[in-house]
Recover the amino acids of this structure.
């Protein structure tokens, strides 16, 4: 067996050469293990960043959809008698409206801040988010009131979609909300104001507060479609 001569103060000590190879091999194993631990840590960090980014995108999309829903209800509360025909003629969305492409919403819905009757954008849209937010109101059912003469009770389906985009890629998340809203159409009433930024009260609640509690008015159902 070949030996390695190591000089000390008292002379030479012979060490097997294969011990040096074992130490080198052990060092390589430890280095590889540390490298693997580092790679696992980096992958875990990247995964957590991706999850956090996806959560933020979903949150922003939900926020935009909520803004669109709030604007739609504000307009419904402010609508005049002659505006009813617009909601009666609105296109009926397919059952899986949450899976419809953005092009469908672009064609059949309205952006936040727009008066659908005049087609004009208001100077200060409700709670502007800088994100794509659109809405649509469809008349579902109308019946005469049992307690108030010359009054109709109309049920509406309010759909809203909000999108959040990642950078300039044009991809991201979107959320779709659905609400069922009841609105009376009496002969004489005071239409609700469109909600200005910063106001906390719902315009639909303000509108409904002028009627007797027995008269159906306001949101009766809600769900998040996506």
């Amino acid at each position: 067996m070949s030996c390695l001569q190591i000089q000390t103060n008292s002379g030479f000590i012979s060490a097997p050469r294969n011990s040096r190879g074992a130490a080198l091999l052990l060092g390589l194993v430890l280095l590889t293990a540390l490298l693997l631990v580092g790679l696992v840590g980096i992958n875990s960090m990247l995964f957590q960043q991706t999850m956090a980014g996806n959560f933020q995108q979903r949150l922003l999309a939900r926020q935009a959809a909520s803004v669109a829903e709030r604007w739609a209800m504000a307009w419904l509360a402010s609508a005049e008698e002659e505006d009813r025909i617009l909601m009666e003629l609105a296109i009926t969305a397919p059952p899986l409206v949450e899976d419809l492409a953005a092009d469908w919403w672009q064609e059949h819905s309205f952006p936040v801040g727009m008066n659908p009757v005049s087609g004009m954008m208001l100077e200060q849209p409700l709670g502007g988010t800088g994100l794509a937010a659109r809405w649509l109101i469809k008349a579902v059912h109308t019946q005469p009131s049992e307690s108030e003469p010359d009054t109709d009770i109309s049920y509406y389906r309010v759909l809203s979609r909000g999108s959040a985009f990642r950078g300039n890629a044009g991809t991201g998340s979107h959320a779709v909300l659905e609400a069922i809203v009841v609105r009376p159409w009496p002969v004489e009433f005071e239409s609700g104001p469109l909600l200005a930024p910063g106001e906390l009260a719902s315009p639909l609640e303000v509108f409904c507060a002028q009627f007797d509690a027995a008269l159906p008015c306001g949101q009766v159902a809600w769900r998040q479609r996506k």
Summary: The radius of gyration is 33 Å. Strands lie at 3-8, 11-16, 110-111, 114-115, 120-121, 133-144, 151-166, 171-186, 218-224. Residues 1-8, 126-130 have pLDDT under 50 and may be disordered.
